[in-house]
Write a structure and sequence with these properties.
Length: about 80
């Protein structure tokens, strides 16, 4: 079952670096990752916020997002 990343369609575009990382991860793991874009994920105060499955990552950075995804897709 693919790992789900949920982002806010509006807020993520204010942070192109994070959006780029989402796109890079989706391209790197096409079978293992799905990206769901919501109109609002009720995280307007924590931009850019991302959910990976049910885990919430407020004010995520590109390296933080990459690390969180890779930890879940490539267990140590
Ligand atoms: S409009 Fe982006 S989280 Fe609310």
């Amino acid at each position: 079952m693919p790992l789900q990343i949920t982002i806010c369609r509006l807020c993520i575009r204010s942070r192109p670096d994070v959006l780029r990382m989402v796109a890079q991860l989706a391209a790197a793991f096409p079978e293992k990752l799905i990206v769901v874009e919501l109109e609002c994920m009720a995280a307007c105060d924590d931009v850019p916020a991302v959910m990976i499955e049910t885990d919430y990552f407020p004010q995520v950075t590109p390296p933080g997002l990459e690390r969180a995804v890779r930890e879940r897709l490539i267990p140590a």
